[in-house]
Amino acid sequence: MKILITGATGYIGQRVMARLLNQGHEIHALCRRKPEGELFNNPRVRVFEGDITSFESVKEAASNCDQTYHLAAYARIWAKQPKIYFEVNVNGTMNVLEAALQAGVKKVVFTSTGSTYGTSDGQPISETRIRLTDFFNEYESSKFMAEEKVQGYVRRGLPVVTVNPVRVYGPGVLSESNALSHLIKAYITGNWHIIPGNGNNIGSYTYIDNVVEGHILAMERGVSGERYILGGVNADFNTFFSTLQKVSDRYFYMFRVPMPLMLVYGWKEEIFARWFGSEPQITRKWIRKYYYDTACSSDKAVASLGYSITPLEEGIQRTLTWLREDLNIDY
After folding, report:
1. What is the C-alpha separation between 283 and 79, in angstroms, rounded?
2. Contact (CB, 8 A) for 146 and 6
3. Backbone angles phi and psi of 37, in degrees to 5
4. What one-character-per-residue DSSP string does 273-311 give?
5. Does position 108 have pLDDT exceeding 90, yes or no?
6. 0.90 exceeded by the pTM?
7. Exposed, middle or buried: residue 268 (CB in 10 Å: 0-12, 13-18, 19+)?
8. What is the helix (H) or strand (E) element at residue 100, kind and residue range?
9. Which of 62, 92, 116, 253 could form a disulfide with 103 if both were Cys (CB 3.0 to 4.6 A apart)?
10. By C-alpha distance, which of 111, 126, 85 is closest to 216?
């Protein structure tokens, strides 16, 4: 089977692609530039140089494909021109869906984000959740708009399933999308000592292999027009770091930084970005998310797809093994 993957060079995209190659499929990988690495030298991988903001590029890559995994997105925490979020995440998604429709693609899996659902407010977020809070940043709002575009194409007869990963971590490309693995690496090497706020804010932590499996299962069993949260273990920051300390046997002192102080730091980072063109480590829009809980329920994905969740301690242990054995991180 021929399968188009957008975002094939990304954190989740590379892992999905490797899984599909192991299953014997042929891959059309749409990439902005020809990537290096053994994965892309596989004879069953055909690289198409282009961008999802170009319909012609996507149309060419989708030709003769049976399935599409649309993972490409602009997910960085900063953009000098915020409109890029909408150009890539909304217009780009429409290009992928239109190309799939014209090419007769049998099914599309669209990768959105758990952030489109908002905050949990005492109850884990489910797919029926109606968002009551405003969007924290352009990434969230653009992905929400893309989900709305998906529903329009479903009504036109294109089978599309949406998956919503949450805080993903584990082995893979150390890109901005793999920020949690960056954080784990920073902690074990003694370069991270911060817990946001009082550490009691809850998020959902999901191991990369679960997310990859969730994508494959969504293609195999997902119902067109439905959304599936690919969540993990709901835990607060204190629990996450105490688990990391226990598994790594590294007990560095952690500072709980008040949110107002973090906002001041985010403001400073934004000022430097505007004045000197540097990339901010964090912005106030992303920091404000830490004021809220974002616990998630994956019950729908578990029941309908057969999705599974790796315990936090086990997932962190696998990540540490990868850092030590594959990246030669000595700690």
Report:
1. 11
2. no
3. 115, 155
4. HHHH-PPPS--HHHHGGGGS---B--HHHHHHH------
5. yes
6. yes
7. exposed
8. helix 92-103
9. 62
10. 111
